[in-house]
Amino acid sequence: MKTPSAASVEMVRRLVGFDTTSRDPNLHLVDWVRAYLDGHGVRSELVHDETGKKANLFATIGPEDRPGLVLSGHTDVVPIDGQEWSTDAFSVVEKDGRLYGRGTCDMKSFVAVVLAKVPEIKAKVRATPVHLAFSYDEEVGCIGVRRMLDMVARRPVRPYACIVGEPTEMKVIRAHKGKLSIRAHVRGFECHSSLAPRGVNAIQYAAEFIAGLNRMGRRLATDGPFDHEFDIPFTTVHTGTIQGGTALNIVPKDCSFEFEFRHLPAHDPRALLAEAVAFARRELEPAMHAVTPDTGFRFEESSSFPGLATDEAAEVTTLCKAATGANGTSKVAFGTEAGLFEAAGIPTIVCGPGNIDQAHKPNEFIALEQVALCEDFLSRVLDSVARRA
User: Fold this and answer.
1) Residue 389: pLDDT above 80?
2) Which residue of 109, 134, 269, 296 has the fewest CB atoms within a 10 Å radius of its CB?
């Protein structure tokens, strides 16, 4: 079994030790990283959120007047609330060839290896720069990276490619699904449950709408469109939360629920949303308005990110295949910030250490061998960048 360097393992320990749950600030981690880079003579720039309590970090190693390669990762992690951990989630425990802790897999180990490689990057980079791009709030809708990409777009020279180090077991991922998340609110008309026909039951109308979403999902699973290179080869429709009502003997006035489309890169999720909204307007609201006009559905987008579809022949695809020794590439259902980099005109591949099945779980871990494989991968990538004219 390959073992990683002590420098990378120590960097994983340091980064996991910062609790950067998405609901909380990340500046304690970002400030530490910035000081670390300063110590290596690398200047970095922060791009804050509107509160000033969170920030992206963008740094360039090498010349700034030529297109470079971006190494990208997010700094936030999902909550540990309600999970049964065997250890302190924010203190790395090494056991049986694994590193346990929140974010070890998703995705502080990649960021740690990149930071541990800074001396190597400085030694190898001459003509082609390497950019480090570390974002906030990826876990709640890929929010922070958008501000950073706005900043990158204003620069006179755009990066030529990007590698996002989400956990793929070091497999080269050139495509993933996008997501459109919607929050819906149903306003009904409350009355005593013994007089139910005189009210408008918000929960029941929400249930009818959700049943319509289920029918849409079954249709997509049967009729497509399909891309059989994905593990789930069609666009999916999912309802994840629902709240409503006050008491059993009251016809509920309000009901809220959330649903999402996980869509193939070429499948327009807003066309599916328009179809669902049209169903509510046409089939459900007329009966609601017949009781009282002050009822109906309201929809708002809560988050979205585009799918990724990088060409098999793209330079970054060829680069990552060579660096991993892979003959082919894969496509995955989970989403990343990579689609936003691609939408900004930066061809992007997802490739990083760890298995996505370990993400977001109690006792999250990464195998030490995966960290070592990531080190080897980045060294080969840097060798290729150094040879790029």
Assistant:
1) no
2) 296
Quote the DSSP letter at residue 84.
-
Describe the strand order of the beta sheet including 236-244 as a list of residue ranges. Answer: 236-244, 254-263, 178-187, 296-305
Exposure letters 298-312 (e unless 16+ CB within 10 A, then b)? eeeeeebbbbbbbee
Residue type, 243: Q
- Catalytic annotation, pick one of 106, 137, 138, 337: 138
Instruction: Give me the amino acid identity at 329.
Output: T
For residue 76, indicate whether it is catalytic.
yes
pTM, two decimals, is 0.92
Q: Is 31 a catalytic residue?
A: no
In tens, the pLDDT along 210-243 reads 999 999 999 999 999 999 999 899 999 999 999 9
Active-site residue identified among 76, 137, 260, 337 = 76
Provide DSSP, 313-365: TSHHHHHHHHHHT-S--EEESS--THHHHHHTT--EEE--SS-GGGTTSTT-E
